[in-house]
């Protein structure tokens, strides 16, 4: 007869990290973290192609069991290609960043500024200098772009701005600085 032991220890004695080797090659393929040892894991890391580097990291920042943040290395080059965050914890990513060309830094950002599920602000860094070159805004949150801004000379200041101030779909104003 085998004796079974059911652990009765409180959460604070459970491990803060659990490592697993899914393909039995001796290298950790995923890790879950419970930093405050309350039994709810805040971070999950996974090596999806078993190359020794984590390709996916997920966060549950408020420990409700729903993923609030996600980083992914889609092309497996060791740099994050996508970062997605649910800032208001409603189950929808409202802040997205992309590295589209593999060069260091993020070159596309999409933000839902009023948390209605629609992207209201898009910013692009076309030349990877850390400054935005193009910005589009939906200021009245109807799904249509109301303002286009362009940095034509790369100095970090928008030189050309086109606005639809009465929100009728036509850009009435165009400013060049």
Attribute tags:
single chain, 177 residues, mainly beta, 13-stranded antiparallel beta sheet, 29% strand, elongated, disordered N terminus
Descriptive notes:
This protein is mainly beta. 0% of the residues lie in helices and 29% in strands. It has a 13-stranded antiparallel sheet with strand order 1-2-3-4-5-6-7-8-9-10-11-12-13, with no helix packed on it. The termini are far apart. 8% of the residues are buried.
Topology, please?
Blueprint: E1 17-20, E2 30-33, E3 43-46, E4 56-59, E5 69-72, E6 82-85, E7 95-98, E8 108-111, E9 121-124, E10 134-137, E11 147-150, E12 160-163, E13 173-176
Antiparallel strand pairs: 1-2, 2-3, 3-4, 4-5, 5-6, 6-7, 7-8, 8-9, 9-10, 10-11, 11-12, 12-13
Brief rundown of the structure:
With 177 residues, the chain is an all-beta fold. It is built from no helices and 13 strands. The model is unreliable at 1-12 (pLDDT under 50).
Work out the helix count.
0
* Arithmetic mean pLDDT: 86
**SSE order in H/E notation?**
EEEEEEEEEEEEE
> How helical, in percent, are the residues?
under 10%
Portion in strands: 25-35%
The 3D shape can be described as elongated
Question: Which strand order does the major sheet show?
Answer: 1-2-3-4-5-6-7-8-9-10-11-12-13
